[in-house]
Amino acid sequence: MNLDRLHVMFGMWDLADPYNQHIGVTITSLVMNCSLPVTVHLLYDENLHKDSPEYQENQLKYQQMEEMFGVEICYHHIELPAYVLNHPGTKRWNPATYLRLFAPDLLPDLDWVLYLDGDIVVTCDLAEIWNQKLWNENFAVAAVRDSCMFDWSKSIWKRHENMNVPHENYFNAGFLLMNLKKIRTAYNFQETVEIILKKYPALPFPDQDLLNIVFSHDVKILPETYNNCVLFHPDNDYTNCVIHYIGEKPWRNIGHSVSWEYWRYLFRSPWGNAPEKYMPSVRLLVSRAPLDEVVLTGRIISLRKFVCNLLRRGWNEVRGVKKFRW
After folding, report:
1. How many structural domains compose the chain?
2. Are 176 and 36 part of one and the same domain?
3. Which residues form a coiled coil (predicted)?
């Protein structure tokens, strides 16, 4: 396998879905900070809304991204089987979350791939983990311990114990380095996925629990910097890491100090050129903010001034203006 390119995968169930904007932000942040050329693999169902304007528009924006950043984007069509679509967890979670389970078969020419959730912003160079010479190590996946498990109820802990998932190795599946070659050769993975989903209809976190059931004894634990969860670590340093917006999303809540990182990369992405698309998120921020004022960077400013400055700051950065004051 040619390791001179970083291969990263996203599960995008529907190319017409507004969530493409958030994946576009993740890709923008990744490629702008990566010292290696990047190939993005989008897993999706091409039968969904193929003739809709949103489908065509998002495809165009991915093409613009290729031109802007030199990133290569590959589309991989998948139709999820009935045992996935009929699983009770699909009623609570978007089917896109299951797509990573089919990566070994969908990407037969790759030995390794990096999977990222779409609520992530990358502020570090992921070429560093790609070049860490992990390829000769005998693990199926590399991931970060799930930092939110300490807030779970006793029933979830008990359920994981019954599934033989050790707490000390329970990992968050939002950032995964997957050894596809080993998974293909050492695991009958697709059959195992079907068996587990049918055996456990009430998995608390269906895809993540499934991955832990299969790989919790075959995982390399990575430093927390590769999955820095905003909700549970508000005081962490987010300057050189993978920011994972677990819980409240930055397009819904501006309360966290690193919410701005999402907007910064949005304005640099092709989706940032369409105010009519992200204005619903801005309106949502306004509706959730205090009526008269919002606390930001230690100062109190008017909500109207904050929203105006947010938009002006983004456009100024796109145009290359370096100095801007709130």
Report:
1. 2
2. yes
3. none
Residue 295 placed within a domain: yes
pLDDT tens per residue, range 189-203: 989 999 988 888 877
Same domain, 176 and 123: yes
Q: Say which residues have a Cβ less than 8 Å from residue 315's Cβ, sequence separation at least 6.
A: 267
**pTM of the prediction?**
0.83
Residue-wise pLDDT for 77-94, tens only, equals: 998 888 888 888 777 788
Contact between residue 5 and residue 39 where contact means Cβ atoms under 8 Å apart:
yes
- CA–CA separation, 108 vs 110, rounded Å? 6
Residue 294: which domain range?
249-318
pLDDT in tens, 248-270: 788 887 767 788 899 899 999 99
Closest CA to 175 of 236, 108, 245, 233: 245
Question: pLDDT tens, 38-88?
Answer: 999 999 988 888 889 999 999 999 999 999 999 999 999 998 888 888 888
Residue pointed to by tokens 């969908």: 106
- Is residue 187 one of the residues assigned to a domain? yes
Residue 165 pLDDT > 80, yes or no? no
154 with 259, same domain: the answer is no
* Same domain membership, residue 216 and residue 268: no
**CATH at 68:** 3.90.550.10
Q: Would 278 be classed as within a structural domain?
A: yes
Q: What is the mean pLDDT of the chain?
A: 82
